[in-house]
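protien #1 (seq + structre)
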Amino acid sequence: MTSSDTPDNASTGHTGVAAMDWSAASADPQYRAAVVDLLGALAYGELAAFERLAEDAKLAPTLADKAELAKMASAEFHHFERLRDRLAEIGEEPTLAMDPFVAAYDGFHKQTAPSDWLEGLVKAYVGDSIASDFYREVAARLDADTRALVLAVLDDTGHGGFAVEKVRAAIDAEPRVGGRLALWARRLMGEALSQSQRVVADRDALSTMLVGGVADGFDLAEVGRMFSRITEAHTKRMAALGLAA
């Protein structure tokens, strides 16, 4: 999108940075740093998701399930490529942009390694959805070009519906499984929120974006409301799985 075809505020409801395109918004060095951090975090998250889904495919009980996970892993890698290419396009080294987030993501995945196929499905559904909710909240305050890219790479790869179908079928067949998976999902929720908060706290540009220094309209109270909305969405997804939040 160019400056000439950027929607005006009246037609979109966007103000400040969110009403600009990248060429205008990136003139602010602090905003640019925040976007580089955001794209770096997203890119490594997609790469890690690709690796995790490829690993989870090994636990799949049938060839059809294995093929389905392989297809989803491929979609995650395509998302990673789009983010990597965008970083290069704006003059940033993708690996350097991703590097600050490697420890947080790898730590999360190490602490939440699934013990079986069903735990892997719940982790992908719950963990990925929480991350997507967080990034969608942030996207509302981004420039038009970056917002479009972020929303595009958050498109559902199909894992949500697949996980719901398989988990509900497993619970129907063996109701006791539900209690174990509910505890597992609660643990994932706590770990995912803690990870998100740590990442934001460790990166000055990102934290400034969220509390209002860069992204218009956010304040500390709004950050609290944002995490409340993420928690509410998690509760609805748990119900879709047939699990208690």
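ok now protien #2
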Amino acid sequence: MRLAVITDIHGNWDALVNVLQDIDHSGVDKIFCLGDNIGYGPESDRVIQTLRDREIPSILGNHELAVINREYLAWFNPMARKSLEKTIEMLSDNTLSYLSDLERVLVHGEYRFVHGFPPDSPSTYRYEVPDYKKRRIFETMEEKICFIGHTHDLNLIAYNGETLTSELLVKGPSILSFENRYIISAGSVGQPRDGNNNAKYVIRDESAGTIEVRYIPYDITSVAEKILAAGFPGIHARRLL
């Protein structure tokens, strides 16, 4: 079984299309999405429609949460809030209805999918959780691997029942130990913040025992121009470049 995990598309439809093309040529059996499909980028509605057309299950991110409960807009910094308010204006009624039905967690076999941090937070950042709480979460989590997004970077936290370790995930495959449990940050399709502006996603290959980070190029300049033309804050265009 090969599972692809995508996250934090943020209205970047061009990046999503290129990632899906790579997935389609990678022998993947199932795709899961970790939320924050909207905001920052110019084509949030189109992103949601593509996910629905492809029947890709997704969960609630903090950006979706702020759309369905506007009180959460106050949680965002001014530029992110302005982006979300612009995004809300551009979302169709069908998309708004879809967002309101998203769950905070998906479970598939030995995998848990959460946007922020397990067990079910769409808004907690990985680095906000102290190690003693991470250990407690690992010890109570039934699933062997939890995939998370939210930070827009690539990271692997491992726990063997005693020792907790954390490391960056790099391009290509990495071996996962059968004895460990893992929390894996799956990067970002639409707004990576790990020092490389390619779209990122990961593939879990069960038979090989690996997690593979994929870097996918796309026309970044074109998307940046779309962001500016749509009236979104310029910082969200510059972050792509």
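The mean pLDDT is 97.
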